[in-house]
Amino acid sequence: MFESLSGKLQGVFKNLRGLGKISESNVSDSLREVRMALLDADVNFKVAKQFIEDVKEKAIGQKVIQSIHPGQQVIKIINDALVELLGSTHASLEIDPKPSSIMMVGLHGAGKTTSSGKLAKWLTKQGRKPMLVAADVYRPAAMDQLETLGKQLEIPTLVCRGEKDVLVIAQKAQSHAAEQGCDVLIYDTAGRLQIDEVLVEELVQLKNKISPQEILLVLDAATGQEAVNVASHFDEALSISGSILTKLDGDARGGAALSMKSVTQKPIKFAGAGEKLEDFEPFHPERMATRIL
Ligand SMILES: Nc1nc2c(ncn2[C@@H]2O[C@H](COP(=O)(O)OP(=O)(O)OP(=O)(O)O)[C@@H](O)[C@H]2O)c(=O)[nH]1
Ligand SMILES: [Mg+2]
Predict the structure, then answer these.
(1) Residue 62 and residue 110 in one domain
(2) Is the pLDDT of residue 160 over 90?
(3) Which of 114, 249, 279, 283 to mutate to test the pocket of ligand 1 (most atoms within 8 A of CB)?
(4) Which ligand 1 atom minimizes the distance to the CA of 274?
(5) Mean pLDDT of 259-277
(6) In angstroms, what is the span from residue 220 Cα to ligand 1's centroid?
């Protein structure tokens, strides 16, 4: 991911470094190239526009123009803007209360079930006692998939085969968690090809029932431009608390990853970069920016 964007930005930076003097016009030329690179990487056009405006405002200041290495200064400004675009600082999970609940939401195939397992494994390492809850009542296979993950991880997993009401499942989950001494419940919800009324209604009901500390939108980083619409829809409907970007190991252009925070104003909390349960880590904006630049 980000290879092409990275390559293009390196090219721009090479030019900037070579500049002895900086003028408004050569900064503008470079920023035009940065903008093109962002758009080619599938970054939302509004996000790209704002990014360039912010950088430009800082870059054409007198201090930068008169400095000894003006090109280097502009590069630093772009770097800082990229970190800010990705969320500035790492945002952790807000799951202090015991028990806490986390709802995993997102479109079909985004990686909710896999990420539920990955998150459970990660939480175990943090000394928590997670429980996985199969709340996808539409696909029996989804319950099997979560159950398999739970067995593999040796993490309690609640599967109520045949139960069609997520609220009943939630009720059982709460009592099972208490019995088993689990202190964080991860609800793996159903996906849809597109966000629709029925799905939203069900998710809102579940949200009202369990009052989750975290509602994490699981987003396939390869979704491209559409990711922005998906994210804003889910956020409007549920007021998400953050997102998990998946499939960062793929060769997608990565624009969704770069636009997410800016569009929803909600932090990216974790990143998945592979099918294995250990391919998962907390998201750090500055590390991601370093990977890109
Ligand atoms: N390469 C890669 N594959 C992933 C990643 N996360 C999930 N996958 C794969 O993506 C596919 C879909 O993942 P699921 O976890 O089943 O997705 P889901 O959101 O639960 O899907 P539904 O339940 O159908 O809505 C699976 O084949 C996963 O192995 C990732 O970070 N990298
Ligand atoms: Mg699933």
Answers:
(1) no
(2) yes
(3) 114
(4) 32
(5) 93
(6) 8
